[in-house]
Each structure stands twice: as C-alpha cells, then as structure tokens.
Design a protein that fits this description.
Keywords: Hydrolase. Helices cover about 35% and strands about 15% of the residues. With about 375 residues, it is α/β, with parallel strands linked by helices. The protein has 2 domains: about 260 residues, 4-Layer Sandwich (Metallo-beta-lactamase, Chain A), CATH 3.60.15; about 100 residues, no CATH class. Bound molecules: zinc ion (ZN) (2 copies). One zinc ion binds next to loops. The site of one zinc ion (ZN) has 4 residues, from loops.
Length: about 375
C-alpha cells in the first residue's frame, strides 16, 4: 500500500491497494465515522466506483480529486456499484452519473427503499416514526418535538429525497458486468435489506512474490491459510465497529397494504438481526484474503472478525433475555441495554436508533422462541419465554 496523499492539506487521501484497486477517503461532514472509503476498480472500459460518498460540496471535491489522484478523469467512469442505499454510500451517485454518464447499480430491496423515500409524502415519515415510537413505549417528552415538527408541516428536508434511482439491478450471486475483472455480488441483508458485499475473485496482489514485502497486509498474511480474493464489504463487516442493525423501516407498511415487490424482499423483512447473523456466517465461510470496508481501514482475518461479531451479538441476546424476565417495552429495553455511554448522555436522534436496535433484537428473540409479546399490551410489552 502506498499513500498518494493525506487529508488536511487539500490533497485527497488515496490508497493504492494494487492490482487496479484504490480507495478514496471521502469525508462525511459532522460525523464521528469521519469518512466513507470509496473504492475505485480499474476495468477494461474505464474505472468503476464502489459507493460514492456523502452529498456535500467538500465531499464532491474530494471524490473528484481522488479519482484524479488514481490516474483517471471523472468523465471516464464506466459504472457505479452501490453496497447499500445509505446517504454516506449513495449520496453522490446522481452527481457522478451526471458528470460521467456512468450507470448506477444496486440490489432491488434497497432500490425499493430509494423509490419509497423519493415518493413519500412530506410528513409521512414523521407520522410513521411517531406511531412506531408510541407503540414502542416512548414517553411523551420524547414524542413532543416530533409532534410539533409534524404540526408545522415538517419532513420535507428528509435526506435521500433526491437520491439517484439506479439504472441496473445487482442480483445475488451474479458476476457483475465489469469487463476484464471477476467481481461477484454477495447479498448480505441485515444492515439494510439490500446490502451487498462484492467479492473480487482474483489473486490477492500481496501474494505474488511478496513474502518479504513491506506491505502491512502482506506481513499479516504470512503464515495464514490463503483465503481468496478481496472483499468490498460496505458496512457489513468493519474492523472496529459493529454496524447498526434496526428494523427495516418501512413507512408504507403503516399506511399502504400493497405487498412488497418480490417474495425475496418479503422474506428479508421480518428479522434483520437474523438476516445479519446469517450473512455474516456466509462471509466468514468465504474467507477472503483481505477485506476492504467502506469505513475505517482494510484488514485481514475476516473469519476471526466474523467470530468476534457473532459472539458479541450472542452475548447481547442472552443479556436481553435475562432483562426480559420482567416484561418491558422496546423503549424500556433500550434504556436498560448497554450502549457506549449512559442513556442520559445519548442524544435525542440516537435514542430513536437505539430503540430500533432494541426492536431488532426483540424480533430475533421472538423468532427464536425466546421471547413473546404480552397479548393485548399497548404500548407493546415483551417477556422472556
Ligand atoms: Zn450504512
Ligand atoms: Zn456507512
């Protein structure tokens, strides 16, 4: 790996991962994650981007300068592959397509979310959130600001209302249309219903005559079982943080009775944490030689990281089951759960995310037959069984 530049002095932070793969650190404004690692893959028809970054003028400038630092012009881009619809991954896709004519590809389940967000009536999301939080047992002082915003006609500035509609679909298991490369889509639902990891089924460049090389990756690879290829893991597998797993938020389900567009989507909806754990296991079995995630840094030892995350979730689930000896609402469960800081210090918006995470854990416990909804309870109470 060689660093072609550093952030701060205006030069983009670009890493050459060799073998026609680079990463560009595109900043996410006012976010502790810092940046999205947008990957650039050289192909026979021009470079292809994996994710694009947050829609912000500075992020855009960094992306354009980054593509340049990799030795390409933005206008040469052939396509954009999106790991999932979140704005730190899909935010700049519309601008990239406009500037280059590149196609945009995404899994159908996330495209459905992009479509719904674009078409949602202003306020629909707020109505959904208020109803959902009330059912989860949120106290009135938490709901009051949302009700106030709704009364004022809020909801118009929802991020993602202008997100690009993809031109192509990424099908699970398919070899993607990137001429001259062997890149396979692996459907990894959990963080979002249509999250995909992309497996570059090519020899890791660090393995070719590099036993004594200086590359940190090569040193860590020494003495390990081979592993194969490199995995662009999006938010599914990260070296130092666990991705957020909440319920697949669906404002439509509160108001519309239309069935989801495919049975595949329907089956992925019920138990996001179960989906996530299952997708994790599959990535562990895949055993890529190196993981190139969308945040933090590249790493080896995917199987070990998968085991860590699985153990973390198992521990958490058994802790929650113990808490549910006494019936609790999802809100009460979220308050009792362990977070990275005391509940009192968790900011308002993050509490909504925490409740969604508590709900996802409840959903999984119910599915496993380890917890149940107390019949007739409103707000909803759950207890261990
Ligand atoms: Zn995400
Ligand atoms: Zn992300």
């Amino acid at each position: 790996m060689t660093e072609a530049g550093t952030s701060g002095g205006g030069a983009p932070q670009v890493i050459d991962h060799r073998g026609g793969v680079w990463s560009i650190a595109v900043p996410i404004p006012d976010n502790p994650l810092g940046h999205t690692l947008v990957h650039l893959l050289e192909t026979d028809r021009g470079p292809v981007l994996i994710d694009t970054g947050w829609d912000d003028p500075d992020s855009w400038d960094t992306l354009v300068a980054g593509v340049d630092a990799c030795g390409f012009a933005l206008t040469e881009l052939h396509g954009v592959l999106i790991t999932h619809h979140h704005p730190d991954h899909h935010g700049l896709s519309a601008k990239v397509r406009e500037a280059s004519g590149a196609w945009i590809a995404m899994h159908a389940a996330d495209t459905a979310l992009v479509l719904r967000t674009r078409e949602a009536e202003p306020g629909q999301w707020l109505d959904f959130l208020i109803a959902k939080l009330a059912t989860a047992g949120a106290p009135d002082d938490h709901l009051a600001p949302l009700r106030k915003a709704r009364a004022k006609g809020g909801g118009r500035s929802l991020p993602g209302r202008r997100a690009a509609l993809p031109d192509r679909e990424i099908g699970p298991g398919e070899l993607l249309d990137v001429p001259g490369r062997r890149l396979r889509a692996i459907w990894t639902p959990g963080h979002t219903p249509g999250h995909v990891c992309l497996h570059l089924e090519e020899q890791h460049p660090g393995r070719v005559g590099e036993a004594t090389g200086r590359g940190a990756g090569a040193e860590r690879l020494a003495g390990r079982p081979a592993g194969f290829g490199r995995l662009f893991s999006g938010d599914h597998l990260l070296p130092g943080i666990t991705p957020h797993i909440g319920l697949y938020e669906d404002p439509d389900s509160a108001t519309v009775t239309d069935p989801p567009p495919s049975s595949q989507l329907r089956s992925s909806r019920g138990d996001p944490l179960g989906d996530y754990l299952e997708s994790l296991e599959r990535i562990g079995r895949l055993a890529p030689a190196e993981v190139l995630p969308a945040h933090q840094h590249a790493f080896t030892g995917a199987d070990g990281r998968v085991r860590e995350l699985t153990a973390h979730h198992e521990e958490r689930l058994s802790g929650l089951r113990a808490l549910l000896r006494e019936p609790l609402t999802p809100w009460q469960l979220a308050v009792s759960m362990e977070w990275n800081r005391p509940w009192e210090q968790i900011p308002y918006g993050s509490r909504n995310i925490a409740v969604s995470e508590a709900e996802a854990h409840l959903r999984h416990l119910v599915k496993l037959g380890h917890a149940e909804l107390v019949p007739g309870s409103d707000p909803a109470l759950y207890r261990a069984v």
